[in-house]
Specification:
The complex is a heterodimer of chains A (235) and B (232).
Chain A: H1 9-12, H2 14-49, H3 54-68, H4 72-82, H5 89-98, H6 100-126, H7 130-138, H8 143-173, H9 185-196, H10 199-227
Helix pairs in contact in A: 2-3, 2-6, 2-8, 2-9, 3-6, 4-6, 6-8, 7-8, 8-10, 9-10
Chain B: H1 8-12, H2 14-19, H3 29-55, H4 60-74, H5 78-93, H6 98-123, H7 127-135, H8 140-170, H9 182-193, H10 197-231
Helix pairs in contact in B: 3-4, 3-6, 3-8, 3-9, 4-6, 5-6, 6-8, 7-8, 8-10, 9-10
Classes of the chains: A mainly alpha (235), B mainly alpha (232).
Chain lengths: 235, 232
């Protein structure tokens, strides 16, 4: 630290600023795509987890336990380096044409996050009184239709805060995509550091971006809790 | 089909996966993963306890800086914390080994999360306990040390085990700064053999799964046992 001169101008304009901005956009794009897919997949797994059929339930449980108990980094590597042997040829061809790094990162993030989302949705569903399901069934809805029209709309409403937190985790986890060469925020900060030797400035910029993201999102969740769910949380 | 999956790459390198070059060189593989996780777990317990106690302090001048620090760390990706450490520590203290850099980064990061567990545990103890202890004449640190913490820490054990599982998973990020834990060993072997990435990464995923699932199961068992012992 002794012989270090700060030069904040390099990250506020010019080429390095463009890099960091491009990184931010990639981070947001990757997170947005993954969270939508992870929500859909998580919903499916949550419904399977509560299904009547035992094999379906066991499959969902195995899925949850496996993907929650392995590191995301290993899952990213698996999809990036190792998935060509288990994916059909036409998917491989398409992926190679469209830039496999981004797709592999999105697949890994989607599957990893879906396992956490499924548990959030399940605890949301479990908090809906059992009579709702019984009433729906006695009104003639099938199990899936009762879920679709009665249970899930209510459950998703209370699951929104944990889901938004999952989005925040996802945005932070997407930094791991840099290991396979996706040029997201952390990758670009590293890039700026190695080109300019201004690591302090570059990492500060990336840190501030992540912090602003999490402060804004946390504030929105608190607002939602207070206005919509009428939960008053201290501090 | 017999060419599709080749597990000889696993069996040939099995010891390397488990302990690296250990008896003749530095520890690596699963051994190093566990070492990093255990060392960081102990340090982050201490760090989390300190941060947790500071963040419930009566003095705003103590409480707010602690809360700001906790939220700062919780807002950052772990990867960013590792880069900060990797970049700052040598500038401040000269050269330190990568293993220690990673342990410090993991400890710092996990301390922030541990502190939340500890605050939740302290909040979970009924207020009457504090009032009763205070009215017997104990000072506020004595109330915390003799009455609240022993009960709170016991209730937190399952959460600590869960945090340890997260740490095992997080040690995989040490790969980035060249620490030869399990993920790094796997990429090394993958780079050397070239042809078997599916087998190698599926194998280490299973190893991580076995380690983490064992502890997740332990934490669930402890949770049940605790709620049972509370019920009687």
């Amino acid at each position: 630290m002794l012989n270090y001169t700060f030069d904040w101008s390099i990250i506020t304009s010019g080429q390095y600023f463009d890099w960091l901005l491009a990184g931010l956009i990639t981070t947001l794009k990757l997170s947005a795509i993954s969270i939508v897919l992870a929500f859909l997949l998580g919903l499916l797994i949550a419904v399977m987890r509560m299904a009547h059929s035992k094999p379906v339930r066991w499959f969902a449980l195995a899925y949850l336990e496996f993907f929650r108990n392995t590191p995301l980094l290993v899952q990213i590597f698996f999809w990036y380096f190792g998935s060509y042997k288990i994916l059909p040829v036409f998917i491989n061809d398409w992926l190679n044409k469209t830039g496999f790094e981004f797709a592999a990162a999105a697949i890994a993030l989607t599957i990893y996050t879906s396992a956490f989302i499924a548990e959030d949705i399940r605890s949301g569903v479990l908090s809906i009184p059992k009579e709702q399901m019984e009433a729906a069934r006695s009104a003639g809805f099938s199990y899936l239709r009762s879920m679709q029209y009665i249970i899930l709309p209510q459950a998703v409403r209370i699951t929104i805060p944990p889901l938004v937190n999952q989005f925040l985790n996802l945005a932070k986890n997407s930094s791991l995509a840099m290991t396979i060469g996706v040029m997201e925020m952390t990758y670009q900060a590293r890039q700026v550091e190695s080109y300019s030797f201004k690591g302090f400035e570059a990492f500060t910029a990336a840190t501030v971006v992540y912090l602003v993201l999490s402060i804004v999102i946390t504030a929105l969740v608190n607002l939602y809790n207070e206005k919509v769910l009428n939960v008053h949380k201290a501090a | 089909m017999e060419q599709l999956f080749n597990i000889s790459v696993i069996t040939d390198n099995f010891t390397y996966f488990m302990i690296g070059r250990f008896p003749h060189g530095p520890l690596g593989g699963v051994g190093l993963t566990l070492y990093l996780a255990v060392a960081s777990c102990i340090l982050s317990f201490i760090g989390g306890l300190i941060l947790g106690l500071l963040s419930v302090s009566r003095f705003p001048a103590v409480r707010y800086p602690a809360l700001a620090f906790i939220n700062l760390v919780r807002g950052m990706p772990l990867l960013m914390v590792i880069f900060w450490m990797y970049f700052l520590l040598p500038a401040l203290f000269g050269k330190i080994p990568e293993n220690n850099t990673v342990i410090l980064a993991l400890s710092l990061f996990t301390s922030a999360y541990m502190s939340r567990i500890i605050v939740a545990g302290i909040d979970g103890i009924p207020k009457g306990q504090t009032e009763a202890a205070t009215s017997t004449g104990l000072k506020s640190w004595q109330v915390m040390y003799y009455i609240i913490l022993p009960q709170a820490l016991r209730n937190m054990i399952p959460s600590f085990v869960n945090q340890f599982v997260s740490l095992i998973k997080d040690t995989s990020l040490a790969f980035i700064v060249g620490v030869s834990e399990l993920t790094h060993v796997a990429t090394q072997i993958n780079n050397r053999t070239m042809a078997f990435p599916t087998e190698i990464f599926a194998f280490i995923a299973i190893i991580y799964f076995i380690l983490c699932f064992a502890f997740t199961t332990l934490s669930r068992w402890l949770e049940q046992r605790l709620s049972w012992s509370k019920a009687i």
